[in-house]
Serpentine receptor class r-10
Amino acid sequence: MSGELWITLVDTADIVGFTMTFCVNIVLLGLLRTRGKNLGTYKYLMAFFSVFSIFYAIIESILRPIMHIENATFFLISRKRFNYSTRLGKINSAFYCACFATSFVVSGVHFVYRFFATCKPDLLRLFNMPYLLLWPLGCSIPVTMWASVSYFLYPDTEYTEAAVSNVLKTHYNWIKKENVSYIAYVYYQYDENGVKYVYIKNLLGCFVHYFVMSMTFVVMFYCGYATWRTMNEHKEVSNKTRQLQSQLFKALVLQTLIPSIFMYAPTGVMFIAPFFNIDLNANANFIVFCSFLYPGLDPLILIFIIRDFRQTIFKFICRGKKNSVDESRSTTRANLSHGATS
């Protein structure tokens, strides 16, 4: 598809995703406050993820990213909403990369908590104070690695300047070069003699990205499998506890599928395609399209899987419909009574 069509789809996903993310996460935060007593410390982890999702959606909406893959190069282009320096634009793009990485890392922490709760309950103390403060510190290490790599290992060069100008001119000709900031992941290029020149630093940066992604995925898979196996082996817990554990595990299974479809798979394509010199061109914007929708879809799983949350929502909807019907009937009776009197 053309760049113009993709930008239209991406901007639409931005509006829909931001609205859905804000509304759904606000509802989830309200449910955690009023109906989350049985969740223990886990509700604070869920609350953090909700607040982060709203923050992430705001950052995405401000930076309005474009992704483009061409000539063994992946371009992350941000459309400026106001004028600022090239250096600040680079910092903004690296910060967006940090938020992107945080999504992977926090998802892994969710699975670690459920693994502790089900398989190693004595280790749940690590999610209480003062150990709780160590988790943000630990999570910040891979996130900082991802952002630092994006900022330091992909400098702007004459080649990247010419390449991004050509991309804008060819695929997004209504966007001016001075109105964007970018990070260009150049894997390799050919000189005038046809000799391939490999960018070792850039490939090293991609290895760091893959390492962070792989580690979070391994953590989710191992903890998820171990949690499932332990739940099937131990039947002696109370029915109420088992039901809650089962609901949370179903939520986590779906919370694995959603990021796998909307985050892991697109990001994998994002880094693999340039290595094999696959020119996705403007079609690489499907990655942005998915990332705009992801923060709003994830909390929906918790709302509809956890019974207390689901029943609260349904009761609220039914009560609203009942009040609307009662009000309509009262209005009708009043009109009939007024007509009879007349």
Residues 10 and 29 are 27 Å apart (CA to CA). The chain has one domain: 3-307. The radius of gyration is 24 Å. Residues 3-307 form a domain with the Rhopdopsin 7-helix transmembrane proteins fold (CATH 1.20.1070.10).
